[in-house]
Amino acid sequence: MVERLLLVAACALIDPDGRVLIAQRPPDRTMGGLWEFPGGKVEAGETPEATLIRELREELGITVQAACLAPFTFASHAYPDFHLLMPLYVCRRWEGQAAPLEHTALKWVRPRDMGAYPMPAADLPLVPMLRDLL
Length: 134
What we know:
The protein is an alpha+beta fold. It has two helices and seven strands. The chain has helices at 48-60, 126-133; strands at residues 5-13, 20-24, 35-36, 39-41, 69-78, 83-91, 105-109.
């Protein structure tokens, strides 16, 4: 059986103190209550970078330039109903202050402390890579 492939772009926003922004999914959504890297589904005709520029504006109210999005790694994970392919970008420069416009909460967390926050299965392998980077 061929699974439906879902392409989602995500971003690790990193502040000057080396902390990463994670966002809590609303309780009424799939995987509600879990903490994730901000981002979203790549729409038809859209690049992952364009997706992140759009999603970070919609979800967090910040402005990001494509030149500030650095491809870092990716996740490939089989969920029961679809297969997720998720490039993760790193961003250290943006305009505005992040606010939880579509999430329940936001937290700036050191990668070594992310284990205290339940995350979707696809996000978990990305945490040690961020820990090594920072």
